[in-house]
Amino acid sequence: MPKVLISDKMDPKAAQIFRERGVEVDEITGKTPEELKAIIGQYDGLAIRSSTKVTKEILEHATNLKVVGRAGIGVDNVDIPAASAKGVVVMNTPFGNSITTAEHAIALMFALARQLPEADASTQAGKWEKNRFMGVELTSKTLGLIGAGNIGSIVADRALGLKMKVIAFDPFLTPERALEMGVEKVTLDELLARADFITLHTPLTDQTRNILSAEALAKTKKGVRIINCARGGLIDEEALKAGLDSGHIGGAALDVFKVEPAKESPLFGTSNFISTPHLGASTTEAQVNVAIQVAEQLADYLVSGGVTNALNMPSLTAEEAPKLKPYMALAEKLGSLVGQLAHGAVTGIAIEAEGAAAALNLKPITGAVLAGFMRVHSDTVNMVNAPFLAKERGLDVREVRHDREGDYHTLVRVTVTTADGERSVAGTLFGDQAPRLVELFGIKVEADLAGPMLYVVNEDAPGFIGRLGTTLGEAGVNIGTFHLGRRSAGGEAVLLLSVDEAVDADLLAQVKALPGVKTAMGLVF
Ligand SMILES: NC(=O)c1ccc[n+]([C@@H]2O[C@H](COP(=O)([O-])OP(=O)(O)OC[C@H]3O[C@@H](n4cnc5c(N)ncnc54)[C@H](O)[C@@H]3O)[C@@H](O)[C@H]2O)c1
Ligand SMILES: O=C(O)CC[C@@H](O)C(=O)O
After folding, report:
1. Which residues lie with the beta carbon below 6 Å from any ligand 1 atom?
2. CB contact at 8 A, 395 and 387
3. pTM to 2 decimal places
4. How far is the CA of 290 from the centre of ligand 2 (A)?
């Protein structure tokens, strides 16, 4: 039974779903990195929010870990390259808390417009300062969105409902989508110059870090009010403080900080500054949503191989997974076969699908081919890290679908490109389940690829099979299955034999010495 650790506070629905789906679950929150390192080795899955930092060091101790699930959107607390390199799938729940976070941004915008926290504190202190708090209306004001993805577009929708004008800076926003959202797409400088309110909704990346730098803040309209419910690090906090102190910035509301938990900040106590402790996603509804989603996604992956919302692997629905599983087994065997047989550096690998296979999601099939291919040289390769490693090695990976009718109802062909040219192997599924090799370097052959095997290329001549059988028999090697393919009678022949134990170097040398043998190799599947 797979075992999952919930290491951050999460709605109890998550644990309930794990148990219902046959996954053992421990809820142990508040561990230090050292404590987490000591226990993480027992778990197949890890469910987190933002407190647990899934670092390279933690991953090094996670010897059984297959999947990390973030109940939320931002995965900046997970070292994704390190997880990918270790073959650990990283998933998030991209939509479960979007409405809630957008509502928090809108709430902070209202709070800034009417100085609600300061007015509240003053009133409760018995001051009744009616003349001190003069607010602004939102109607007809311009809201500048930096980032118009899931949350940004919900904020835009709500702001339009408040009769605001919405302008957006997002390099990936198409004019069609901007039109559909009812926003005006602008450059960053234009947004800075025109917006009465600015709200940030981008991830923290090298491009967005300090997007509101001192220089950018200097370009804003006097009196601008700024809201950040996305990620700390998007705003230069010192420059923000200077802008508030000088009065150029009319107000700022931060839910997120460069360093969290933010127990101290030069901004604390500044007039017209509001802060919340990363509460964007903290509503009952959002927390139930993300807990359910993360538990379902992790359970799907651990129980049936379904992949949803993975950041380092193609998606595979729980319905697709059983259909694709035999293909992935076939693909892995074909990848392994070309990996073991290819001579010299492979520069490209093409995955072709024909018949029923052409209608499938090819990404997992490609992942399995690459995993089989690269596992020949490394034990730690799997479907998750294989595409990443292939890219790192500069391997040109291509996927091709054919709608032509072939000899088989379904076929997967793998072709590698080396300095000597291209070489292909192809396989099918018998009864839609059993992987079977049907073509090897242009020669038709029908073989299971399982366990230790012997591969021999020889000149087709009478008596050869007898001599080979005798050689193996004298060495005490039992033949399980025997598959033969010929280019033409008397031409080149290929033999694939499954043997009960791997053929050692001495025996291989004897096979190579048999008359007519061109190549002989031991293979393992
Ligand atoms: N405060 C919270 O509790 C809370 C809750 C949920 C999400 N978040 C954060 O909110 C942010 C947005 O989440 P989302 O779900 O809308 O993400 P999303 O991926 O749907 O949208 C992000 C948008 O940012 C845009 N973008 C990327 N680079 C950009 C750049 N250089 N300049 C301008 N735009 C750029 C993208 O094109 C995309 O449209 C994330 O950082 C997420 O972690 C915070
Ligand atoms: O889990 C949380 O409370 C914060 C979540 C939020 O930052 C996110 O990126 O989804």
Report:
1. 72-74, 94, 97-98, 101, 146-152, 169-172, 201-203, 205, 207-208, 229-231, 255-256, 278, 280-281
2. no
3. 0.76
4. 10
pLDDT, one tens digit per residue, over 100-130 is 999 999 999 999 999 999 999 999 999 999 9
CA 13 from chain centre, in angstroms, equals 24
Cβ contacts of 430 within 8 Å, gap of 6 or more: 436
Q: Kindly report the length of the chain.
A: 525
ipTM over 0.90: yes
Backbone angles phi, psi at 479, to 5 degrees: -90, 130
Q: Say whether pLDDT at 85 is over 90.
A: no
DSSP string, 314-379: --B-TTHHHHHHHHHHHHHHHHHHHHHH--S-EEEEEEEEEEGGGGS-HHHHHHHHHHHHHHTT-T
Helices first, then strands: H and E counts in the chain: 17, 22
Closest-lying ligand 2 atom to the alpha carbon of residue 101? 6
- Report the C-alpha gap between 464 and 322 in whole angstroms: 43
Query: pLDDT of 457-514, one tens digit each?
Result: 999 888 999 999 999 999 999 999 999 998 877 788 999 999 998 899 999 999 999 9
Alpha carbon of 90 to ligand 2 centroid (Å): 15
